[in-house]
Amino acid sequence: MVLMDYMNYLYEHLDLLMYLRYHPKWYKILYYEPSYFKDFLKEAQTNLKIRPTDKLENLKNKFQLFYSLSSLIS
């Protein structure tokens, strides 16, 4: 990917852009070594909890809450 492609991707995913702004070490890393963009994505998705496994865990927790509330009502 070219630098502009990275920037377009970040502006399409504002949560990743905000992560980059709060962790400025990535500015320097990505400026000099754009090949680390996948590492940046992996770290950002892990810390922001937006990975598919995190989404499944969140859905599971919602179902557990719904089940416990329904058992209280019954």
Notes on the protein architecture:
This protein has 74 residues and is an all-alpha fold. 82% of the residues lie in helices and 0% in strands. The protein is built from five helices and no strands. The protein has helices at residues 3-12, 14-22, 25-32, 37-48, 52-73. The relative contact order is 0.10.
What general outline do the C-alpha atoms trace? rod-shaped
Strand coverage percent: under 5%
Distance between the termini: 55 Å
List how many beta strands DSSP finds.
0
Topology as a string of helices (H) and strands (E): HHHHH
Total helical elements: 5
- Relative helix content: over 70%
Assign the structural class, choosing from mainly alpha, mainly beta, alpha/beta, alpha+beta, or little secondary structure: mainly alpha
Radius of gyration: 18 Å
pLDDT averaged residue by residue: 89
Low-confidence stretches: none
Top keywords for this entry?
single chain; 74 residues; mainly alpha; 5 helices; 82% helix
Topology readout:
Blueprint: H1 3-12, H2 14-22, H3 25-32, H4 37-48, H5 52-73
Helix pairs in contact: 2-4
Task: Describe what is shown at a glance.
By secondary structure, the chain is mainly alpha-helical. It contains five helices and no strands.
